[in-house]
Specification:
Blueprint (H helix, E strand, L loop, with lengths): L7 E3 L10 H11 L1 H4 L17 H5 L2 H17 L2 E11 L3 E8 L13 H15 L4 E7 L3 E8 L2 H9 L12 H12 L6 E8 L10 H10 L2 E8 L4 E8 L5 E7 L4 H10 L3 E5 L2 H14 L5 E10 L1 H20 L7
Parallel strand pairs: 3-4, 3-6, 6-7, 7-10
Antiparallel strand pairs: 1-2, 2-11, 4-5, 8-9
Helix pairs in contact: 4-11, 5-6, 5-10, 7-8, 8-9
Length: 335
């Protein structure tokens, strides 16, 4: 009945001091009890020792019920109000498209357990930090598509991110296709800043849109591109072929990332290129991007109030009715 008490405020809180009168009235009632009931002097109480009944045991509850009713009336007079808060975000904010490489090389085990799992986890942590931004997700291998359009529902976005796996697309690394897909989602955006975070671990070797062509399109629509090259230096245990049952066969292979291309894309679009050689450096990169892409958010707090005095008034009336009924029926005393 009295749910949400932690959000209750009082319009006339000074009236709550009247509650301090209740202990005083309680002491007065206790010391005056002999004056309210007639005294019958008896030489011996043996005859009435067993005269105690449930009525005599319940009768002391009557003044407690009345005190609780008075307390409820005092609280009702103080005008309790339930505060309902709403936040209205007034800002253009930032629209961000995450672009994730799903080529088979993302299963390389120079990251534990592999590059893809670590990339998904770190990206999910980045999403949690961008509370007021719209974020979307595009993926690519030998082809590209939008996994999740721009949204402020970050729980759905993270569900899509967690479901990513290699092998669902034709294998290859179509960096230009992945970037163009993300830019296509951002070109109509009216956000203050439009950002693509493109993560890959290889050379562009597929797709019909060249990476620099996609970068020029991004530049035209004022889309800033941060590029991340993922992979250790030297050799790594990487999928080198695939069995007929779909299982990957791993072998040592050189880590080849076209860093020059990724840097050119970032420079052209006024972004920045990063190289992640392990999990810690990838986390640091996302932290850097988080710091670089900040915008002023104007938050207007709107408060609405719901009058709750009627709850206490009804509660007090019920207690008073119970006390009145018991006093003059079941617990009635003979004057």
């Amino acid at each position: 009945m009295m749910s949400g008490l932690e959000n209750i405020t009082f319009l006339h809180k000074e009236l709550l001091f009247l509650l301090l009168l209740l202990p005083i009235l309680g002491f007065w009632y206790y010391y005056q009890r002999n004056n309210r009931f007639p005294t019958l002097k008896m030489s011996n109480l043996e005859a009435i020792k067993s005269a105690s009944t449930w009525r005599t045991k319940l009768r002391p509850l009557l003044p407690i019920l009345r005190a609780l009713a008075i307390a409820a009336f005092i609280i009702a007079l103080a005008r309790p109000q339930l505060t309902l808060k709403e936040e209205e975000i007034k800002a253009d904010g930032i629209d961000i498209m995450l672009v994730m490489d799903l080529s088979s090389s993302m299963l390389a085990q120079d990251f534990k357990p592999d590059r893809l799992d670590v990339s998904k986890r770190v990206a999910s942590e980045f999403i949690d930090k961008r509370v007021h931004d719209r974020i979307g997700l595009a993926v690519f291998a030998g082809e590209a598509f939008t996994q999740c359009p721009l949204t402020t529902d970050h729980n759905i976005l993270k569900d899509f991110l967690a479901s990513l796996k290699c092998g669902v697309l034709e294998d290859g690394t179509a960096i230009g296709m992945g970037l163009a897909t993300a830019v296509n989602r951002l070109k109509e955006s009216e956000a203050q800043s439009k950002v693509v975070i493109l993560l890959t671990d290889g050379d562009n070797n597929a797709g019909y849109i060249q990476p620099m062509t996609a970068a020029e399109i991004a530049q035209e629509f004022d889309v800033k591109v941060y590029t991340i090259g993922v992979g250790s230096r030297g050799k790594a245990l990487t999928p080198v072929s695939r069995r007929s049952d779909g299982e990957y066969i791993f072998g040592l292979a050189n880590v080849q990332i076209d860093e020059q291309l990724l840097e050119q894309i970032a420079t052209l679009t006024k972004g920045k290129y990063f190289r992640a050689t392990d999990e810690a450096s990838l986390e640091a990169i996302y932290d850097d991007i988080d710091r670089l892409e900040k915008t002023e958010i104007e938050v207007t707090t709107i408060k609405r109030y719901s009058e709750e005095f009627h709850r206490f008034l009804i509660f007090g009336l019920i207690l008073l009715l119970i006390e009145f009924t018991l006093r003059y029926t079941f617990l009635r005393s003979i004057p």
